[in-house]
Amino acid sequence: MKLSLLFVGFTALAASALAGCAPAATDDATQLGTSEAALGEAGTLTFGADFRALVSGTLQKGKKIRVTYDANRLTTCRGDQNGHPAWTITGYWKIGGGAVHSFEAGGFSPSGGSDPPVLALDASGELQIWFQNVSVWGCNAYDSDFGKNYRFTVQPAANEPGWVGNVQRVISRQTCNGPCDGDMQSAEGEILYDTWARQRAAIRGIFFEVWKDGVTNWDNPDLWKQLDVQVHSRVGSSGAFTTAYVDFDRRRGNNARYVADLGALDPIKGQWTITNVSDCPTFPLSAPAANGGQYVEATVELYFTVNGVEVRPAAGGNFRVRYQNYKSSYAVCVP
Fold first, then answer.
1. Which residues pair with 66 in a beta bridge?
2. Which helix (H) or strand (E) holds 115?
3. In the predicted model, what is the mean pLDDT of residues 114-143?
4. What is the spatial distance between Cα 312 and Cα 256, in angstroms, rounded to a whole number?
5. Contact yes or no for 313/319 (Cβ under 8 A)
6. Which residues of 137-146 are buried (b: 16+ CB within 10 A; e: fewer)?
7. Dist CA 195 CA 322 (whole Å)
8. Residues forming beta bridges with residue 126, ordered by sequence position
């Protein structure tokens, strides 16, 4: 395999990083940093002089893996200055559409050897890696599988669910031994929880399903131990989230279905009339002119986690529930 080489002009950044009297580094990145045993890595990703890329161990979310790079793969940009390498090889990596990270792979070590080439795999998906060799004289070369980058698969963490989906909301007076399928609606967009929902609805919740092989596809008495399902909510669009567990509803085929009770998250239940301003809620409360100005409103933002994996709307952000109640109970709290 041949390398794709690109020569560019001298850059001030490369010159400032490589010149000076910093300690020398070996050509072989395996000598950078501390030992693998001390770091508790899951394995090694080796880029050898024969241009093969070999994985030893497991690429899995939540684990670390050390990159061993043979600097003889990139020999064009070489030379010494003041008795030290005047070139460096930097590795770059990202998982899926995530941020690009870098690590020292060979040559001059800007960190003096204290920054080991260890990747903390913080997500599952496709891992891309590529390398760049630069020198103080403006030489620039790449080892990137001809611009395609080297690609590997990072497996999900061992405790991650295999799938989470069918996030739907139900606010209905009808029941069918639980929610009726015809009443299920997407939880995307804003959900209105009005006085009718509070007073008349028999079912009011957000439902979603989880599948994990060997865990959800049978009547598992240890399901509550093996799946940590939580709802994280706050009133308004800022501030810390509070956390509560989400109830298991039932099995649906091979999936476990959960339900978050919207009534339990209601911040303006209005069971009595507030007469003192000191008793007013501390969260944002509004009284829109719509509907004759007869109601107060508060918006709750929320998302879910299953064994730490976040469940959010397809567009990102949080699910939103706009709670509405009679203004008369909160008259002293709004303008």
1. 44, 118
2. none
3. 95
4. 18
5. yes
6. eebbbbbbbe
7. 11
8. 153
What is the distance in angstroms between the CA of the first residue and the CA of the last residue of the chain?
73
Give the confidence band of 17 by pLDDT, cuts at 50, 70, 90. Answer: very low
pLDDT tens digits for 159-203?
999 999 999 999 999 999 999 999 999 999 999 999 999 999 999
Looking at residue 81, its pLDDT comes to: 93
CB-CB neighbours of 123 under 10 Å: 16
Q: Confirm if 333 and 277 have CB atoms less than 8 A apart.
A: yes
Is the C-alpha dihedral spanning 213, 214, 219, 221 positive or negative?
negative
pLDDT tens-place string over residues 270-303: 778 999 999 999 998 999 988 788 999 999 999 9
Q: What residue type is assigned to position 86 of the chain?
A: A
SS3 per-residue string spanning 128-164: EEEEEEEECCCCEEEECCCCCCEEEEEECCCCCCCEE
Query: What is the C-alpha separation between 292 and 280, in angstroms, rounded?
Result: 22
**CA 14 to CA 107: how far, in whole Å?**
13
| 52 Cα distance to chain centroid | 31
Spatial distance between the Cα atoms of 325 and 274, rounded to a whole number of angstroms = 13
pLDDT above 80: residue 41? no
Mean pLDDT for all residues in the chain: 88
Best CA proximity match to 178, nearest among 115, 267, 252:
252
Look up tokens 């793969």; give the residue: 73
